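Hi all, long-time lurker, first post. I run a small reading group and we've been trying to get comfortable going from sequence to structure in the token notation. Rather than ask abstract questions, I figured I'd post a concrete chain and ask someone more experienced to write out its structure so we can walk through it together at our next meeting. Sequence below, copied exactly:
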Amino acid sequence: MRCYFHGSTDQTDPLIKSDGIVSFAVPDLGIIFRSRWSGNLYDIQFAALISLLKFIENNDKIFKGTDIEIHSDAAVVIYQITKNPVVTKSMLQYYQTVQQYRAKFPFKLSWVPLKDNPACHGLSDLPPMKPSVEIRYDIRDSAKKQVRRGGVLPT
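-- Answer (accepted) --
Happy to help. Here is the structure in token form:
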């Protein structure tokens, strides 16, 4: 199953700490996740990858028995994990966390161009999918019969 991650900041210097966005996408499942994060560009890109790995671990029933391919436009992060045996001190903790996940389940990691990374595109790029889980929308309290379906509204 193909998965994608992306991390970005609004800084031109990748080493300047600022607010940014972590994102991952699993197009085969119709999933896209985004959250705010703080750090330099590499902190944020590693946080996006680790968020995706945590998601895969937490949903092992979905991913069990599939070949997991993780793609990203984060060239430095991909290089640090796949090619460079010498990891910088600032990235060591992230690197070790990724290696702990690699020991739990196998995955391939590779680079893709930014334009081919659905984790950084809009939701409209994902195909519509029928939910595979039943979602309950009735949130009324059974003790309060006057609460209308869908939530608490003033009467």
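A couple of things your group might point at:
DSSP finds four helices and five strands in the chain.
The beta strands are 2-9, 18-26, 31-39, 69-72, 108-111.
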